[in-house]
Amino acid sequence: MNGETIFRACIAVALLTVATSVFAQDRTGKAFLQEAIEGNYAEVQMGQLAQQKGQSDGVKSFGQMLVTDHTDANNKALSVAKDVGLNPPNGPNKKEQSNYDRLSKLSGAAFDRRFVKDMVMDHRNDIREYQRASKTKDSIGQYASDSLPTLRKHLRTAQSLESGHGVSSR
Q1: How many CB atoms lie within 10 A of CB 100?
Q2: For residue 127, pLDDT beyond 80
Q3: Which of 52, 70, 107, 142 has a CA 20 to 30 Å removed from the CA of 61?
Q4: pTM for this structure?
Q5: Domain spans of the chain?
Q6: Is 169 exposed, middle or buried (0-12, 13-18, 19+ CB in 10 A)?
Q7: pLDDT tens for residues 37-46?
Q8: Per CATH, which fold does 26-162 belong to?
């Protein structure tokens, strides 16, 4: 092989590596966005459930916050999905629906405790996923980055409720 052939081969390998990396990031970003949309639908449902079944004013108020904020977040996520060519889901995934069904069987203080515990765990996980997705320099990463302050606010609110500020332990 002469020098020019080796050079062309190196360029081809480099381009293939970059294209593969971009394709993998695109698939990862779209998977994140799909899960984010499903999660937003689930949080809206959970917020509505908290308003119906919650015993404490704190849980009911937090439920309203979830409905408002996750409806707004989902509108933004659906816009990004359209921009990146993702056919978005139209509701929560099966796991999230199962969590909803389990919680819907509770009421009063038992509902409040379980709901708040689930919201703390869920928002911790969401923050980790959104932080990871926010590292990309595209519209999906921007959506994730823009969503983090609200998710952190939700986590702080749930933690405050969990520590006894607004949830009865009866």
Answers
A1: 16
A2: yes
A3: 142
A4: 0.82
A5: 26-162
A6: exposed
A7: 999 999 999 9
A8: Ferritin (1.20.1260)
